[in-house]
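Protein 1 of 2
SEQ + STRUCT:
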Amino acid sequence: MTTDVIDDGVTLTDRAARRIARILAKDGKATALRIAVEGGGCSGFSYRFDLTDARADDDVVIARDGAMVLIDPTSLPFMAGSEIDFVDDLIGQSFQVRNPNATASCGCGTSFSI
């Protein structure tokens, strides 16, 4: 599996890039998937995924194979070294962030603690 690497070591897998590109093409309005870390969730922090056409000057951008991911500078330190993947298994389909900084997470896969 090939990944694109940006500053702070955040990577985007081939599967995630392909899925994001398909979602953006189908949506027709959004130009990127924004991933943010916010307070809340079962474990203290949670990931938020939003389609957007708004890019801030200080956003970190991962662009690859027709996919664009935006991460705001406040969320980036919480995601340093993470891998963004797309998983399609018996339980369902979802984007997953494999975060080496997370010390715990809950079963939903979007909530974590550091």
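Protein 2 of 2
SEQ + STRUCT:
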Amino acid sequence: MTRLAICKQAIATNTKFFTKRSFSSSGLEANSSKYYDIVIAGGGMIGCSLACTLGANQKLSNKRILLLESSKNKQYIPSEKYSNRVVSINPGNKKLLDNIGAWKHIESNKYATVKRLQVMDAISDTSITFGEETSSKDISYIVENDLLIHAVKTEMEQAKNVEVQYNQRIKSYNLPKESGEMAKICLEDGSEYTCDLLVGCDGQNSQVRKAMGVNYLNWKYDNVGIVATLKFNEEIDNCIAWQRLLPTGPIALLPLTSNMSSLVWSTTIAHSQQLMKLSDEQFVQAVNEGLWKVYERYGIVDQLVKSFDSFLRAANIPADVCRRYPPKIQSLEEGSRASFPLGFGHATNYISKGVALVGDAAHRVHPLAGQGVNLGFGDVQCLNKVLGEAHYVGCSLGNVFCLKDYESERQKYNVKMMIAVEGLYRLYRTDSTPVVIVRSLGLQATDVLFPIKNMIIEEAST
């Protein structure tokens, strides 16, 4: 029996878990303008998407939702020039954006489709390819951060039960200690709000998470991410995302147009400082070197790779021979180079009484697999479903018993994905000969085992 079924049974028998409340913990009536059913702290990409998704949920159409954002309401201005901050959206989350009406705004503007992902080990001559350029299945979609937020906000503003307040800084939270209490949010301007459910979408330094007092496992990598917009010396059918695993960290090209790609380069702190000081011409040269440089090879690794390849061919399971290589970079979009710190983080609990964490407030992962924002969108979809079902059977939106379904489902998926990404990061951060042998042969084997490859794609696409 599911938790929601138990909730429904409990309500039917008038158990103590669910008592109808007419007043908040601060004495305000539930129909007061200071009361909202759901308050979302943080109006970034995930916060706005959650507000929009909840606003479009017919089961929650009578629920009042407030989104509090600390920054000003920035107007999106379309430009032919690409931003240096983009995200890779998987097909499952593209469907979410389509369902809430946001994708049409992206589609009418600009985005790129990734049909094929090619990952290459710089130390050995091994690689793995996901997807086909001629396939009807897409691997992911590259969208500018600002455009995605604009698309979601445009639809969010149409939701009748969603209110947004910008430039609102939160002073403190008073979270429920007992069942039946409400969360209280105090703003720096003196305003106070109460709600059945407070959702923290306030990023990696989440104040909501800190107020919950949950354990947060986190560390900083000795790597820095560098982003830029790059131009090729020719036009190509640019539907491939390339990633080369260097000894210092992965370098990746994400398609934008027929002659432009977005760079995401994870490298050491010292190297990143050097790269940021280079002229544009020198930086382009460094990128090309990162994509093409021949690193010192290990004879035993090459020998084992060739032997394993011969074995695969003898067994009539040859590796993918349709390997493509990235084009040469010609120039850098002026002013597009930037850097940002990288880190790992995971909250041991995503929920407590009347509170839930979503997106980076709950988890943070290395960008090498492009899963950070997709994990956040997965949280949005799951919480939306859980809250809709909870309200349908008569549960309070902030009841921890119902919220457990959200926490259980998302931690089961997120932890598995985060361990996989962290494992890949650690595996390719060493040039130890035994490790290089294991990962090279593993990459070769995975490349020819199509059921495993398809399973990986399906897992990353949901």
